[in-house]
Structures are given as C-alpha cells and as structure tokens.
Amino acid sequence: MKRFVVAAPVLALVMAGSGACATKKMVRQRVGEVNDKVETLSQSLEENQQRTKANEQRIGEVDQHAQAADQKAQQAGQRADEAAAAADKVNARADKIEAASKRIVYEVVLSEDEGNFKFGQTKLPDEAEQKLDELVNQLKANPNGAYIEIEGHTDNVGPKDVNYKIGLERAEAVRQYLYEQHQIPLHKINVISYGEEKPIAPNKTKAGRAQNRRVVIKVLA
Predict the structure, then answer these.
(1) How buried is residue 97: exposed, middle or buried, by Cβ count under 10 Å (0-12/13-18/19+)?
(2) Residue 195 phi, psi dihedral angles, 5° rounding
(3) Taking burial as the number of CB atoms within 10 A of a residue's CB, which of 42, 51, 102, 216 is the most buried?
(4) CA distance 103 to 115
(5) Has domain 104-220 been given CATH number 1.10.10.60?
C-alpha cells in the first residue's frame, strides 16, 4: 500500500513533464510554420516588387518609343509641308512659263453690263451668240489662233461654291456653242471657272457686279 502511494506522485510528475515537452514542441512547430509563411510572403513581396519595377521599365520604354514616333510624325509632316510648298512654287513657275509662251490673238468679253449673261443665269443670250459668231469670223479671216481659253467669272453675291458652278456653266455654254455651231474641236478649247475670285470692278455697286458677271474668251497663238 505504501509503494502505491509513493508511485502515484512520481507518475504525476512524469505526466506533467511529458505535457510540458509536448507544449514546447507544439509552440516550436507553430513558430516554424509562422516563419515559413512570413518567408513565403517576403518572397512573394520581393517578386511583386521586381515585377513592378520591370513593368515600370517597360512603360518607360513604351513612352520613349511613343515620343520618338511623335517626333518622326512631326518631322514627316514638316517634310510634307515643305514638299507641298515646293510643288506650289514649281506649279506657279510652270504657269508663268506657259503664259509667257502663249500670245493672245483675240479676246472677247461677254458681260451683263453689255446685255449678255443675266444675274444667276447660265443660258447663252442672243447678244453673246452674235459676239461669238464675230469672233469665229475673225479666226477664219486670220487663222493664227491655235487654242481657245474660256474663263467664267461671277460677282460675290451668294455662296462661293455656287458662284464657281455658275461661272463654269457659263463657260461651258460658250464652248458648247463654238463646238456645235462652228465645229471648233473640243480639244482646242479649255474651260475654267474663277467664280468670284477675279473681279474687274468693285462688287459694292450694281454696275460693278454686272461687269464682274462675265465670260472671257481668249484666242491664243
């Protein structure tokens, strides 16, 4: 009986010691797991930071490429403007050379102030037909003219595009008459409309506007 009483406290101490050992192991295990998680999170954070830096670098490179592309586009636009300006100069020079190479033999003006084209009208009046017949008779008597240029002009009343159209239709009416009534080849007749761009009198007065509504026929040698 006394042996049992002595053994019981010893067993209790053993059990208590083993429980303490188990608790320390669990704590160390938990601490180890926490350290592993912290290390894993640290690695993930570093990887994210590296990816962020890499993305920022790529974005910077893309911005540089975009800026370079903008600069190239601006340079190309400047070159295009310079080329267009150069082309305009060449065309102007060519027009001057062409004009200098042609000599006006006859010139006839069909204007409203002389009883010809009326305001807003494109039909060829009888008075204009008579002037054209006289022009053709002069050509037959002195056939030096090799080319006919017909210019259509208007005043500045109304939209610019409408005036351009009216000027062109008036010039076309003259060309059609010369072709149908006098068999002048179409390839020897050039038609152009200046619309309201080349007035010969002020558009502020009725008489000035009447003079500007005209068709000019030039016979060139």
Answers:
(1) exposed
(2) 55, -125
(3) 216
(4) 28
(5) no
